[in-house]
Design brief:
Number of helices: 2
CATH class of the largest domain: Mainly Beta
Keywords: Signal
Pfam family, one: DsbD_N
CATH architecture of the largest domain: Sandwich
Strand order of the largest sheet: 1-18-19-16-15
InterPro entries: DsbDN
Helix content: under 10%
Radius of gyration: 20 Å
Number of domains: 2
Distance between the termini: 27 Å
Oligomer: single chain
Number of strands: 21
Strand content: over 45%
Order of helices and strands: EHEEEEEEEEEEEEHEEEEEEEE
Protein name: Thiol:disulfide interchange protein DsbD N-terminal domain-containing protein
Largest sheet: 5 strands, antiparallel
Structural class: mainly beta
Shape: globular
């Protein structure tokens, strides 16, 4: 079955379902409790250069899931607002490898278990207190998707949660070039015979690992991935793109094989052929 990457406009869900809104003032417990989920910010400490490790921890009720950075055709894209933070120059979320879900609503990419999203934070002025303030909008889903919101705050001083954040970092796909050696890698990509909008992708993965491929593009570009009779080969198709759009553009491919995952970027040229 083809998997279509289509971001469902969040406003549709705002009309159909009210927000599960909750807040965490500084005096409240660490968890912000919402509908079928809890969320908190955890600290991994700050090093001498002013770079800190943090984590967005989401705990889910049994049977529920939440979404990856690209949620698939039936999911809700998460949104993060760090504007209330203090002494913060840059915030980068690192995404552990997702799973693929298929149900009556379509195909979704995300997590069906408690998840920590590692966050790397750079201070504007190293040596001074670094405070995070986050408003996060995310989706919770079992049979239907429900938008949720959490307002969180944390001072990144202690390193008490560093070990669990580093464990989550170990699940983030390794970035590597096309054709890189290794047991898990993307070997090649080439135009699919007879199609001007599809590519054949050859992957390498351990036998029996049932690899899954996720394809992402720029905003308003939607890709699908489908398997072939060869378990090491996938077809990636451009399903939609901005009107009159041409290359160059970047196609990001994430290959997940069991507990291992890699991420490779491929440039599509002016006529949308890989190079």
């Amino acid at each position: 079955m083809a998997t279509l990457l289509r971001v469902v406009p969040i406003i549709t869900f705002l009309i159909l379902f009210p927000f599960a809104a909750f807040a965490q003032p500084e005096s409240a417990p660490a968890w912000a409790v919402g509908l079928h989920s809890r969320v908190r910010l955890i600290s991994g400490g700050v090093n001498d250069t002013g770079e800190a490790l943090a984590g967005i921890e989401i705990a889910l009720d049994p049977g529920f899931k939440t979404y990856w950075r690209t949620p698939g055709e039936s999911g809700l894209p998460p949104r993060f607002d760090w504007s209330g933070s203090e002494n913060v120059a840059d915030v980068e979320i690192r995404w552990p490898a997702p799973s693929l879900f298929e149900d009556a609503g379509g195909v979704a990419y995300g997590y069906s278990h408690d998840i920590i999203l590692p966050v790397v934070v750079k201070a504007s002025q190293p040596g001074k207190p670094l405070k995070l303030a986050l408003t996060v909008d995310y989706g919770i889903c079992k049979d239907i998707c429900i938008p949720a919101r959490a307002e969180l705050a944390a001072t990144l001083s202690g390193a008490e949660q560093r070990a669990v954040i580093e464990q989550a970092l170990a699940k983030v796909p390794n970035s590597q070039p096309l054709g890189a050696p290794g047991e898990v890698s993307l070997v090649s990509i080439e135009p699919k015979s007879g199609s001007q909008a599809a590519f054949s992708v050859l992957a390498r993965a351990p036998a029996g690992s049932q690899p899954v491929l996720f394809a992402e593009g720029p905003e308003n570009w939607y890709f699908s991935t489908s398997k072939t009779d060869d378990p090491s080969r996938f077809i990636v198709t451009i399903e939609e793109k901005p009107q009159n759009a041409t290359g160059p553009t970047t196609l990001r491919l994430t290959l997940v094989a069991g507990e291992r995952a890699v991420e490779t970027e491929v440039s599509l040229d002016e006529i949308l052929k890989p190079r």
